[in-house]
Amino acid sequence: MPDSASNDDNVIPLHGKVSDAEWETRLNLAAAFRAAHHYGWNDTVRNHITALIPGSDDEFLMNPLGLGWHEITASSLVKTNFAGDVLSGGDVKLAPAGFNFHSEILKSLPEIVCVLHVHEMAGTAVSATEEGLIMFDQGGCMLHGEVGYHDFEGLASEAEEAPRIVADLSDRHALIMRNHGLLTVGRTIGEAFTFMHGLVTACRTQVQLLSMGVPIRRLPEDICVHTHEQMMGQRGNKPIGERDWPMYYRIAEGLNPSFKD
Q1: Which of 116, 123, 148, 167 is surrounded by the most beta carbons within 10 Å?
Q2: pLDDT 10s digits, 214-256
Q3: How far apart are CA 125 and CA 148, in angstroms?
Q4: Contact residues for 199 (Cβ-Cβ < 8 A; gap 6+)
């Protein structure tokens, strides 16, 4: 199990040294880090986005300890497995708390290939409220029935907590970790990212609305259900974000294409 913090500054370029499927996953995951940083979801070396490597049952990519999200590149991502072995070489370490529940989610939910966790300010604020997330607008209806809750237990590095996180997530795509932050999952990197974009936006909307000091019009439950069904019915069982993710990827390219190194 990874248990200490360090980072190898001499990242070895991996393009051409890994499978095409792994490299494509590295590119998309690195782009997710850069775009997430651009949106202000994380400005520290903490928090994680992980993604399974196609064709593997237990190998996945994760950011190493010590790099900010704006610094992540395709080659700097660490390949590890559910046992915590670092498979990509280099003197790198993984954050024990992040590894603990990310690996458990990827191992326990076969359809899920990406897990995204942030301590974004509005999301953390909403996570500390008794009522939790409230649907106030059309965009928020995408999350109706998609959000679970997990009570704070301290740093999520204890092995026995990880199954409880999985149970509280269940078959949803989003989890509010109370007094902690936000988590989303997806069948693709784009789906996890799109759900997180919707969740962060809904939390920011809630914080802003409730700070206005005026009566707020809430959406009736039946309208939330209807709007959610309209949104999801357009996609069938396809992962959401198929149209959105290429745009987010282009944002990362426009910011700094060095993530492809």
Answers
A1: 116
A2: 999 999 999 999 999 999 887 778 899 999 999 999 999 999 9
A3: 16
A4: 123, 133, 143, 147, 174, 182, 184
Residue 1 lies in a domain: no
Q: Say which amino acid occupies 5.
A: A
| Residue 172 placed within a domain | yes
In a domain, 261, yes or no: no
Question: What residue ranges of the chain have pLDDT lower than 70?
Answer: 1-10
How many Å is the maximal CA-CA distance in the chain? 59
Three-class SS of the chain: CCCCCCCCCCCCCCCCCCCHHHHHHHHHHHHHHHHHHHCCCCCCCCCEEEEECCCCCCEEEECCCCCCHHHCCCCCCEEEECCCCECCCCCCCCCHHHHHHHHHHHHHCCCCCEEEEECCHHHHHHHCCCCCCCCCCCHHHHHCCCEEEECCCCCCCCCCHHHHHHHHHCCCCEEEECCCEEEEEECCHHHHHHHHHHHHHHHHHHHHHHCCCCCCCCCCHHHHHHHHHHHHHCCCCCCCCCCHHHHHHHHHHHHCHHHHC
pLDDT tens per residue across span 116-139: 999 999 999 999 999 999 999 999
Residue 230 covered by a domain: yes
Cα dist from 205 to 123, 127, 140, 150, 198, whole Å = 10, 14, 9, 22, 10
CB 23: neighbour CB atoms within 10 A? 17
Total number of domains constituting the chain: 1
Give the CATH number, domain containing residue 41. 3.40.225.10
